[in-house]
Amino acid sequence: MKRLLMAAGITLMAQGAMAGDSEIVKVQASGDVAATMDALQAAVEGAGATVFARVDHAGGAAKVDLELSDSQLLIFGNPKLGTPAMQDDALAGLYLPLKVLVYQDGDGQTWLAYEDPGKMLGALEGISGEGEYIAKMTGALGKLTGKAAGN
Known about the structure:
Layout: H1 2-15, E1 17-18, E2 24-28, H2 33-46, E3 50-56, H3 57-63, E4 71-77, H4 79-88, E5 98-104, E6 110-115, H5 117-122, H6 132-149
Antiparallel strand pairs: 1-2, 2-6, 3-4, 4-5, 5-6
């Protein structure tokens, strides 16, 4: 188990950067928001997960005559991974399904961002910080965002 957690941690460090002590992991992407989101959705579906929604934040803002930098959110999951977490603590349902935000910052750089599963789920009383599903979620997010980012 320790090796699996260590491997997941190394994967994240190689592909993304933690935003300080934050629960947010950011991965720099080589493409624009739309292309990166398309690549992320393809990677998620290719991994056998279910895409529940793709939210175009900038498109929503434009519909009410407001401006927002390009930003899209993908909501997805795999019940085989998420259900055990919710069996351990029903409040895990507040954090699941998983979400990845693809956005453009003020410098025009595209980023993928997501919450660290260990930090978001590990804070719940019924969840063990060494839960196998946490390591699997962490590893999957690292691989999926890395692939979408072009890394």
